[in-house]
Amino acid sequence: MPVYQLSGHDLTFPPARLAEPDGLLAVGGDLSLPRLLAAYSQGIFPWYAEGLPILWYSTHPRCVLFPEKLHVPRSLARLLRQGKFIFSVNQSFATVIRQCAATPRPGQPGTWILPEMIQAYCELHEAGYAHSVEVWQGENLVGGLYGVALGRVFFGESMFYAVPDASKAAV
User: Per the confidence metrics, is the pTM higher than 0.70?
Assistant: First the structure.
């Protein structure tokens, strides 16, 4: 199946069922607020790499966490009860996304969170669609996550930790 080429002005995506086996659905377009919202509303997300056009994916199956079915391991629950972490929401969005971009990932040569992505998601945040959870120890940001919220769905995008379990605690 050929991958769909997005135009610069048309925000229409092909049906997600047309995605390649790895989830690749479309190429091109931009990271504008309207396009990102159109994509997320259909379960489509961008994956960006330096020197390549924007790649749009719709993977199947998707990992879905239902809050009422979330299992918190005993060791993590014990850590949370100890009060070693302080949590905030949307207090340091730009810092969280930059930390996610800067965190080395085993087996990955770089990051997909390039400056253009950071700018686009900061704009989503300013518009009220992207959110962050920050994990602190004292005044030090030690973990966090960010993602996009549409309706009753939160699309987790990336997380980081500087101390063990901080990103798990953010979830």
Answer: yes
